[in-house]
Amino acid sequence: MKKRLFMYLFIFTLLLVIFQFVNSKNIIESYDKKLTRYMEENTELKDSIRTMEDIKATDLYTFKFDTNDDAMTYWENQGYRISEFVPFIKDELMNLNIYETEDHPLVPYASMTGSKMLIDQIRMINHKWIVVSFTDGTYWGEMLLAYDIEDKKNLKFKVIESILYQP
Fold it and tell me: Fewer CB within 10 Å: C terminus or N terminus of the chain?
């Protein structure tokens, strides 16, 4: 009887060990498949992020005077040094913020808050156009300006289009 009891215990233990082994093997294979799938998805997502970053980096250089060789060459052929030219244009636009009249010399909208409309951001697009942002603290807008230099000193701005946003 003792022999049979040991034999049953041995068979039971053997079955339990086999069950545990198979169950553990299935669990490990399942985790391995999930891990492989997650690693593949992660690689795909990293590739997508890298592509988006490349597009963003390209977008940062699009429509910017500093990266537009044709625009810089145009003004260099006119006898200007680009390192002095861009600050000159921006300074001239910012100097227009100092005015005594009620209306800004370039901004086609009057201030509705009692404070002055001021140019606050400037982005040179190419050798002929500038995008300018303006605000009076509450209302803001944007303008597309054309610019040209006559006689190496006389800078002319012309508003091509403008928009005023609602707060």
Answer: N
Neighbour count for residue 86 (Cβ, 10 Å) = 17
Token code pair at residue 105: 């010399």
Q: What is the CA radius of gyration of the chain?
A: 35
Helices (H) and strands (E) in the chain, counts: 3, 4
Phi and psi, residue 85, nearest 5°: -70, -50
pTM of the model: 0.62
DSSP for 63-77 reads T-GGG-HHHHHHHHH
Residues 123, 106 contacting (CB under 8 angstroms): no
Which is it for strands 129-135 and 154-165: parallel, antiparallel or unpaired? Answer: unpaired
The C-alpha atoms of residue 167 and residue 155 are separated, in whole angstroms, by 33
Task: Please give the span between the terminal C-alpha atoms of the chain, in angstroms, as a whole number.
Answer: 93
Q: Give the tens place of pLDDT for each residue, 57-104.
A: 666 666 777 778 888 888 888 888 888 888 988 999 999 999 888 888
- The CA angle 117-122-127, to the nearest 5 degrees, is 130
Q: How do the residues of the chain divide into helix, strand and coil, expressed in percent and rounded to 5?
A: 50, 20, 25
Strand partners, 11: none
